């Protein structure tokens, strides 16, 4: 698939995906969502990729929301389909990826942009970042998981406030509310994301995939996260990575994981 709206580049064990629509503040339209879905899926299936970093081009925005021109005349059924397809194609895909995904939030992360960042496993924001879900100011609600993931991250009360006021918060406030893991200068943003990715890449890819499934299970309705953890823990014992990791520990050397 050729990309018109994103850039996907491999750097060692990292796949760096950049949303590249700076004139539109990297807004998510249907084509961009399809391209992101393809790039994330390919990274997930590439054994040489251990961490994915997603960011926006330019200095103003990570993603400043969805492209309203595409759906402002939609019917009820079209709106429901838009939301459902977005969940399936991108936002749920990112959350359940077997590789950790780090969002490097440069500038505005609004609406679908913040929803994309919240789908990622780790978030780093630049000092100039502004985050928010302004959908109610347009007569609609967040439709790509925002009402659910925001409450999981910042708590029910703060999620109610952010969504119903439609106000943006600063990067420092986002850190205070546990919405982002770190705040850096704009110049150091990508380096910080790569630093985290480097630490992740030293560890077992199979164990990390199991950890992602186990952590996510605790936030899924009707799923017992503890039971999933027991199952995933047991599965680890049948992997070459487990043999390598435990053997390296006994032999007092650094393990060389192959993700098997």
List keywords for this structure.
single chain, 260 residues, alpha/beta, 2-enoyl-CoA Hydratase, Chain A, domain 1, 6-stranded mixed β-sheet, 4-stranded mixed β-sheet
Short description:
The protein is α/β, with parallel strands linked by helices and 260 residues long. It has ten helices and ten strands. The strands form two sheets. The chain has a six-stranded mixed β-sheet with strand order 1-2-3-5-7-10, with helices on both faces. Strands 4-6-8-9 form a four-stranded mixed β-sheet.
H and E string: EEHEEHEEHEEHHEHEHHHH
Give the C-alpha Rg.
Answer: 19 Å
According to CATH, the fold-level topology of the largest domain is: 2-enoyl-CoA Hydratase, Chain A, domain 1
Strand order of the largest sheet: 1-2-3-5-7-10
CATH class annotation of the largest domain: Alpha Beta
Shape: globular
User: Please, how many domains?
Assistant: 2
Low-confidence stretches: none
Q: Bin the strand percentage.
A: 15-25%
CATH architecture of the largest domain: Alpha-Beta Complex
Tell me about the largest β-sheet.
Answer: 6 strands, mixed
Helix content: 40-55%
Oligomer type: single chain
